[in-house]
Write the structure tokens for this entry.
Amino acid sequence: MSGAWHIAATLAAPALRWNLRRRIAQGKEEESRLPEREGHGAARPEGRLIWLHAASVGESLSILPLIEALAERDAGLHILVTTGTVTSARLLPQRLSPALAQRVTHRYAPLDVPAWVARFLDGWRPDAAGFVESELWPNTLAATHARGIPLALLSARISARTAARWGRFAPGFARGLLERFQLIMPRSAEDAARLRALGARDVAVPGDLKLAAPPLPADEQALAALRDAIGRRPVLLAASTHPGEEAQVLEAAEAIRRDRPGLLTILAPRHPHRGPELGPWPRRAEGALPGAGPVYVADTMGELGLLYRVAHVAFIGGSLVPHGGQNPLEAARLGCPLVFGPHMQNFTEVTAGLLGAGGARQVPDSAALAATVADMLTQSEATAAMARAAGEWVAANAALPGRMAEALLGLLGKAGRAG
């Protein structure tokens, strides 16, 4: 099957190149950096180089503590980070300190075409490579392994559905992919069991990098302006919402306003381009601040840290619709009381941990959301205690980046030993 994938990807190269051009018009690619998608643009520094690949925004931000831990432990180390989205490419440099930025290089990941991957690897020649969560690209893994570059899978995750499908239809293919890794650090015990069942070796103690990410930042001037515009109004933030959720949140907010007419609901859609479709409300993308009306649309990127700091309660999107939920940890780190819907399967262990610690509340529908948020706004002491419990639960994972950095650095001496 790996041979078939190699041939298929090679034949698909012209279509992939056309699709990359098409994505420029959608704002999903940077035209000036399009050659990177074909493996061009190598500028390898002297010395040791670790390559970390993180697919998108959440994964790329989750590796920031790992990058810091690697840099602290090896003063001569350089780090190459590849991602696949424009947003992650723009946010990552903003989150690096000036000193760290000098040792970290970002490139867009080459697509999984054999010739493009080979060009990338020939140019960068990493001493070790770490892939985050579920980035299992067959040609990339095969070429990296063939060059004797040690491979690690970090915060590795695989859903029960995917594991069952691979086990039924392509067990040999799955085993072949996983056996290329010399180190697998699963996200959870459940992920570890699924990966072992598919043939993974060298599975370490579970650990989720997203649990150890730093608090989201906020511009102080923007924060002061937003707080001034809001005044003393209670704020319900609907963070990273998906289609079909905003209407449910607004329905719940309308019910809450019967007793709390000053409630301000902030809608922060997961995909900011949806801002104009959410209603005739002031929009942050247009430079507006909240007015006297009941709703404000925060349709910008990279400002959740700002929004969590002004919210009295945060609803975590992707959970009232069957998407699987968005990351609740960002709110927890900033002491923002949080609530989510029934669909949190993307964060099963995190959800269970937060609920078990008394650090979050879960609701089945919009009617229950209204009652729960109203209660959280009324019971301020209990709500504050819940936020503290969430923060303490998240803080318990602070040692993970260091442990992961030690494991990755241990691979550097194994370069050239592909087996």
